[in-house]
Amino acid sequence: MTSASLPRVLLLFGGRSSEHSVSCVTAAGVLSAIDTATYDVVAVGITKDGTWTPVAATPEQWSFESGALPEVTANGLTAHLSLDAAANERGAELTVSASTPSAERDRGGAESLGRIDVVFPLLHGPFGEDGTLQGMLELADMPYVGAGVAASAIGMDKHHMKVAFAAAGFDVGPYAVITDKQWRRDPQVALASAGHLVYPLFVKPARAGSSMGITRVDEPAGLRAAVEEARQHDPKVVIEQGIEGREIECGVLEGRGAAAPRTTLPGEIAVADGSHTFYDFEAKYVDGAAAQLSCPASLPDAELDRVRELAAAAFDAIGAEGLSRVDFFYTPDGRWVINEINTLPGFTPHSMYPQMWEKTGLSYPDLIDELIQLALERRTGLR
Ligand SMILES: Nc1ncnc2c1ncn2[C@@H]1O[C@H](COP(=O)(O)OP(=O)(O)O)[C@@H](O)[C@H]1O
Ligand SMILES: [Mg+2]
Residues 19, 249, 254, 321: which is the catalytic one? Predict the structure, then answer.
């Protein structure tokens, strides 16, 4: 088979959110594992300020091993995906041009990088995982891996996901929301909206990830500063009552055709080190010894089955597609409190989601293949 007849996959990574570098590390993992005998891979990195930059489809410069946190930087070229749905018909042309008009004149005009059949967004956080990119791809009639517009937006927002989960009958912990306008109107009144919550509290940016901007607050004196900190990441803030429980996660993969979602063996995260009071950014990515991941979690079979059912139900509750990781607290009295759904969970080969699939019998390369096949199989537009 010649590469001209292989499906062309556009890997998109980097991006404008605070999880830019995490996304680059994910790209390194996927670039190392994707089967290039099956797919023709094209890579575009998005800089922190939003320029789509064509880059080599090789993993080397994007891994953590390169020393500093990897970052996509401008290289004078900009990639563009055609948004003309009528012309596109499932797929779109990718062109590359110089970033400035004068350089573009010198180059003699835009150059085509050919047609893309499917986009694999490896982007975490706002402007990638939150429905904005998905909306653009829908407009372009472009197939893509993962959740659609609404599910991405709901799954990104820790407020709206709680509303959806509570409506679907899930056990959601007590919480309060402070919008930007409420805070700017009167911080004192806004803080009072969390007055019914029992300490410790967890103060979070509504739309972030990788534990960025999250503070555990043990007494009222620390609340205001924690809100200010969360607001560095997102003007909308969620304040949650701390839940005592084991952290159990379960991976979900959409079923083929009309089949029900598939789930992984559930895994457990245990934060071991005394210097981390919760599963914070350092424990997730920097301090390798801080968190212990075990899969399957040590639980009775009936509870393993129960959390798998709940994870599939959470996937359906927000109308997710492709993949999600659903995270729960398992309380000492045996309740499953849902913490969050991630529609683009950590996806390096060492991340929980691929690791749990590995333990369930689906390797990382096969998982990547399955996700692309799901995207190619599903129709574009309303579905
Ligand atoms: N309500 C809570 N009770 C207890 N621990 C929490 C709570 N919320 C968050 N945490 C801790 O903080 C971590 C990160 O919070 P999470 O909501 O999962 O944010 P992110 O989207 O950044 O992963 C969790 O894995 C858990 O260790
Ligand atoms: Mg989390």
Answer: 19
